[in-house]
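[Help] Beginner question about ligand-bound structures

Sorry if this is basic. My supervisor gave me a protein sequence and a SMILES string for flavin-adenine dinucleotide and asked me to "get the holo structure". I don't really know what that means in practice or what format the answer should be in. Inputs are pasted below exactly as I got them.
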Amino acid sequence: MIVGNRVRTFDGIVVGGGVAGLSTAMQLAVRGLRVVVFERQQLGSGSTGRAAGLLGQLRGTPEHTRMLIEGVKIVRELQRRVGVEIYVQTGSLRVAETPERVREIAALVEMGKSIGFPIDHISVEAVACLLPTMRTDDLLAACLCPTDGYLQPAELVAAYTQVGREMGVVFHTGCHVQRLLAAKGRVRGVATSRGEFQAAVVVNAAGPWSTLLAETAGVRLPAAAIGHCYLTTRPDGDHPVDRLSPSIRDRHLRIYARPEAGGWIVGMYGAQPPVHDIARLPADFDMSTMKAPRDSLDVAMLLEAAAHRFPWIGPRIPMHVTTGIMTFTPDAKPLCGKMSGIDGLYHCTGFSGHGIVQSPTLGVIMADLIVNGHTDYDIGAIDADRFHAQCDLTDRAQIDVACRTMAGNYYGAVERIR
Ligand SMILES: Cc1cc2nc3c(=O)[nH]c(=O)nc-3n(C[C@H](O)[C@H](O)[C@H](O)COP(=O)(O)OP(=O)(O)OC[C@H]3O[C@@H](n4cnc5c(N)ncnc54)[C@H](O)[C@@H]3O)c2cc1C
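Answer (accepted):
No worries, everyone starts somewhere. Holo just means with the ligand present. The predicted complex, written as structure tokens, is below.
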């Protein structure tokens, strides 16, 4: 159907122009569907525009690890196609300063090796040589994954958009989806600030706003909007940072770090992250305008932990603090696919701090589910409907507590590796 020169009927509608929506739209178009993406602001202006992009492929389970390894292959193919560097392969280090973290690293190395993933122990002396500006005298053990690195979120957004457009994806930016249109247990389309659009398939990839969108069709998504921040130091001649220095995960201090333009990005998964009431944010809320006051508790704790690992980072060092909102779930795994209740409505959200690096494969998984009804991946752990029978997650307050608790334990708890 065409009204006023505007096509109003598509095979698929994607709500949200972050990495999740863009990757899904691109993969749907590759499979021949006519797809439209609605984005309330600019593409990549939500969580995606705030991300550090750290990529650690080895996760707690072999299947999750496979998803990330396959994601790197997709990104390499995208790079070739658009001619821009998206993936910076720096390698990654995990460091341990307590016996239980040493055991965690040992289990990770064992699991990695059992599935042929490049990972090995590295001596603390070798870590000190690799990163002379990092404190190492309190470390007991470390491991190195040479094929890890980070993805550049802006370049990834541009690549998904370019390839999507070449495959026929239509983009409506500055267009707010007000509600889902559903009748008789089926989604029919969306009502937007530019009128109604029809499709038999709607993908909710609205990031932190995905809970609000789902509620317009009476669906309660078990996800919450959690605040997160990191600092970026400026280049400093006394503490040079090689562009290809390995990224670092120090779960005991709850920090991660990676090189960025001659400085370090250092972020923290604190024990008591803020929960944002997304329904109370203004309609024109712009995540890029968020500021974390330098004297806030979150920033103070981040600075303290960063200064422990990099003792030259102090309050007088020139740095920028980036703050934003990520979408957490009660088990820190994404919500992908359909939920009981409404046919044709798919969710792709809840990435719990890892949406940039999960997006390449999750786009494939979403498109496979939508087009074929199944995927080769075992998606039991990320199935959007997995909390369906959980009666302690029936209202917003319970969901917020469950998601915040998980976010607070995210680095603090010792990882269970299977
Ligand atoms: C500070 C910070 C650091 C992070 N670091 C990392 C990292 O190192 N590695 C990593 O992998 N991930 C990281 N993340 C997480 C990552 O940014 C997210 O997981 C990812 O960007 C989620 O993508 P998305 O597409 O689901 O959401 P978003 O990027 O938020 O996209 C959703 C989009 O939907 C739009 N939208 C919402 N509602 C509507 C509506 N009703 N109508 C139209 N449009 C709508 C929004 O404007 C938004 O652009 C970080 C996040 C933050 C905040």
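A couple of things worth pointing out: The longest strand covers residues 224-233. The radius of gyration is 21 Å. Feel free to follow up in the thread.
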